[in-house]
Amino acid sequence: MPSFVLIIFASLFFPGIIIRTKSIASGRKGPEIFQPLKDIFRLLKKGAVYSKTSSIIFQIAPAIYFSSVLAAILVVPFGNHKGIISFEGDFLFFIYILALGKFFMIVSSLDTGSSFEGMGASREALYSMLAEPALFILIGCFAMMTGKISFADLFSSLHFGSYISYAIGVLGTYMLVMLAMVENSRMPVDDPKTHLELTMIHEVMILDNSGFDLGLILFTGNLKFAMYGALIANFFFGGFPIHIDILIFAATQIAFAIIIGLIESFMARFRMNHNPQFIFTLSSVALLIFIGILLMKNNLL
Fold first, then answer.
1. Quick one: average pLDDT of 203-228?
2. Cα–Cα distances in angstroms (integers) from residue 281 to residues 196, 267, 286, in the given order
3. Distance between terminal CA atoms of the chain?
4. What is the distance, to the nearest Å, from the Cα of residue 280 to the centroid of all Cα atoms in its chain?
């Protein structure tokens, strides 16, 4: 239960911190920290407009996308506190419930009948397909390291006590940050501010969404960022009292948002044909973690 409440709370501030970081890095005054949240509330108060050529799929997809991320957050633990839902193999539920939401968003963009949105949908599907093995290998490695197969048991049993384990923790954190960037279609894989039709990915998929539906999609992106931040924060919990864990959680989320802002300020977007190579590299990093765990367990040979 603590993780669910804290993730919702962190999602309210997350995009504002990113935008403030980018504003400071570029020497601009920039909007206030709550401006992205105000924009979302403004959209949520409006009605949605639907094309006569689209079906019910287009109308329900944003709600399914939002619900899928909420369902995934239910299994995220908070230190020694289990998520609202916890069972053995819940990480499979976590991955595939997120995939379900992504699937409906891709299908809804195809449902518009626009070849432009279909182009973005095919790119998003490709990147998700390439990112999935990296996430599976990463969680599988930690499951092998701890001997646990549920999120709560896995993170509560995860202790770093050697140089190899520290390296594994750093690589795991790097992977979760990069996977969050890919899943949320942010730099360097995608640029949410671009309007060049040949380079748009996620933004082109939601061009036909408006009003309440668009607000729901934007808020879901904030939830996904905070959710990945909560997973990263679980690396740093070590049996502390809950008020210390809350401070660690807040510090991790703020640091995560600032890192994203800095990446988007000082890093250019990759060329489109380099994106698959970059995402596929994440699977190679996951394999390094796998080798590191074999070294820790003296099972490499």
1. 88
2. 26, 18, 9
3. 42
4. 17
Omega cis (within 30) before 188:
yes
Name the strand (E) or helix (H) holding 41. Answer: helix 35-44
Which residue type, as a one-letter code, is found at position 223?
L
- CA-to-CA distance for 288 and 294, rounded, in angstroms? 10
What pLDDT digit, counting tens, does each position of 88-133 carry?
A: 888 889 889 999 999 999 999 888 888 888 888 888 888 888 888 8
Closest among 192, 183, 180 to 269, alpha carbons compared: 192
Residues in the chain: 301
Residue 254 corresponds to which tokens in the numbers above? Answer: 């703020």
Q: Which residues in 259-293 are b (16+ Cβ under 10 Å) and which e?
A: ebbebbeeeebbeeeebbeebeebbebbeebbebb
Q: What is the residue-wise DSSP string for 98-154?
A: HHHHHHHHHHHHHHTT-HHHHHHHHHHHHHHHHHHHHHHHHHHHHHHHHT--SHHHH
DSSP 298: T
| Positive or negative torsion for Cα 247, 249, 254, 258 | positive
pLDDT of residue 61: 92
Please check whether residue 37 is in contact with residue 16, taking contact to mean a CB–CB distance below 8 angstroms. yes
Beta carbons within 10 angstroms of residue 108's beta carbon: 27
Distance, in Å, from the CA atom of 169 to the CA atom of 289, rounded to the nearest integer, reads 9
- In three-state secondary structure terms, 81 is strand
The CA distances from residue 261 to 175, 185, 227, 255, 265, in Å, are 17, 14, 17, 10, 6
